[in-house]
Write a structure and sequence with these properties.
The complex is a heterodimer. Chain A is α/β, with parallel strands linked by helices. Chain A contains nine helices and ten strands. In chain A, helix 3 crosses helix 4, helix 4 crosses helix 5 and helix 5 packs parallel to helix 6. Chain B has one domain: MetI-like (MetI-like fold). Chain B is flat, with a radius of gyration of 21 Å. Classes of the chains: A alpha/beta, B mainly alpha.
Chain lengths: 255, 218
């Protein structure tokens, strides 16, 4: 199949002051693929995700969505952002409105949907993430896992071409990560295109089509999970994985 | 008995007229003061460098200027530049300018206290900066600013008595006139004071109700 990838990230550079965070990061994602980005903190993973939808404007490099270059000009960027979902480590749900309104608000204000239509769509997505019975609760009334599922529903409601997950379970208690990872697993199965920055190696090894190891602002190595996790080429990747497995437990080959 | 007759027959009809003027002053100054405060706060936080500096100058100027002096400048000073207002309009203008400056400070502080993630999430969904400000940031900021903003509204009810210095006969002015005519200073000013207390109590109740109405968990 030689279709254009959904997302192409090309040679992204970004410095904050004198510190060069991204030094030419490139990757591409085909429709329905899940790519997992791993790497030590400070490697530039979060910044790279933010460069994709221009929340951080790259110094150099280009991003293409379905073959069309993502430009950060005012007139263009909001059109692209609607098609690029984003899920944050700290959820960033809107604190002053209910779960349902959190999912609805962009449908009403950005997509200009009719109220009834937006409500139906929001309820559908909340049911999809298993939050159908808590739609009238405010963010402060939700557990971390529930809040993150609402934020996934909020991203899904926009019918995005791709969803970027920025360490979606890192702020959660270990016992709550499961419910979020399960939702993400289901999305991957249903063919959602996803880019996931995570330290959850179990999730990566069972869901990812490709794992990319990032260090110091560029990708050091990439490949299918079985290769990266069990036969990494680079010494740095090995070291990183051995440190991570101390935290998150040994992986076994059965996933 | 004599006092009650005085209050009923002489004082109340006069005070009533003044009271209505006070209510009109307040009813006009509060909404316009609030609007000014919101606009100045937005200009300071989200405006470009020019707008932001202009808004900052506004606040420095009107926060630094004694209200009575400001009222004198508007009512007695501006006519020499060919701009003349009635005592009532001059008073409202002074109150709005002053109240707007203080209110804007509460709202600016509240806007800046909303976590940056709220704006980031809104923009990631495709909202423009201004959509994010109006639908996400301001509703949260307003809730947090309300106790302070409400206090400014209560002050306004009381400093509306300064309008009397521009010959606008409001509640305090009406009291002063009756007292000077009848020499019944204590009774008169006691009643005037009770009316202010009554207005402030009602305003406090309304603000409490608004705070409850606008509150959300967390």
């Amino acid at each position: 199949m030689s279709t254009t990838p959904v997302l192409v990230v090309e040679n992204i550079h970004k410095s904050f002051g004198k510190v060069e965070i991204l030094k030419g990061a490139s990757f591409a994602v085909n429709k329905g693929e899940t790519k997992v980005i791993i790497g030590p903190s400070g490697a530039g993973k979060s910044t790279l995700l933010k460069c994709i939808n221009q929340l951080v404007i790259p110094d150099r490099g280009r991003v293409f969505l379905n073959g069309e270059e993502v430009l950060h000009s005012h007139s263009q960027i909001n059109r692209f952002r609607q098609k690029i979902g984003m899920v944050f480590q700290n959820f960033y749900l809107f604190d002053h409105i209910t779960a349902l309104e959190n999912v609805e608000i962009a449908l009403l204000k950005v997509k200009k949907m009719k109220r009834a239509e937006a409500r139906e769509k929001a309820l559908e997505e909340l049911n999809r993430v298993g939050m159908g019975d808590k739609v009238h609760l405010y963010p402060a009334e939700l557990s971390g896992g529930q809040a993150q599922r609402v934020s996934i529903a909020r991203a899904l409601a926009m019918d995005p071409e791709v969803i970027l997950f920025d360490e979606p379970t890192s702020a959660l208690d270990p016992e709550l990560t499961g419910e979020v990872l399960e939702v993400m697993r289901d999305l991957a199965k249903e063919g959602m295109t996803m880019v996931v920055v995570t330290h959850e190696m179990g999730f990566a090894s069972s869901v990812a089509d490709e794992v990319l190891f990032m260090e110091e602002g560029r990708f050091l190595e990439s490949g299918p999970p079985s290769q990266i996790f069990f036969h990494p080429r680079e010494e740095r990747t090995k070291k990183f994985l051995s440190r991570i497995s101390e935290l998150y437990g040994e992986l076994n080959k059965n996933g | 008995m004599d006092s009650l007759l005085f209050i009923h027959n002489e004082l109340f009809p006069e005070l009533w007229k003044g009271w209505m003027v006070t209510l009109k002053l307040v009813a006009l100054s509060i909404p316009f003061g609030l609007l000014t405060g919101i606009l100045i706060a937005i200009g300071r936080v989200y405006g470009n460098r020019l707008i932001s500096s202009l808004c900052r100058l506004y606040v420095i100027f009107f926060k630094g200027c004694p209200l009575l002096l400001l009222l004198f400048v508007i009512y007695f000073g501006l006519p020499s530049l060919g701009i003349a207002f009635s005592p009532f309009v001059a008073s409202v203008l002074g109150f709005v300018l002053c109240n707007g400056a203080y209110t804007s400070e509460y709202i600016r502080g509240a806007i800046q206290s909303v976590k940056t993630g709220q704006m980031i999430a809104a923009q990631a969904l495709g909202m423009t900066k201004w959509q994010a400000v109006f639908y996400i940031i301001l509703p949260q900021a307003f809730r947090r600013a309300l106790p302070g903003v409400g206090n400014e509204m209560i002050y306004l009810i009381k400093y509306s008595s300064l309008a009397y210095m521009l010959t606008c006969v409001e509640l305090t002015g009406a009291g002063k006139i009756v007292a000077a005519r009848s020499f019944r200073f204590m009774e008169t000013f006691a009643v005037v004071g009770i009316i202010y207390l009554f207005m402030v109590s009602i305003a406090t109740k309304i603000l409490q109700w608004a705070e409850k109405k606008l509150s959300y968990p967390g």
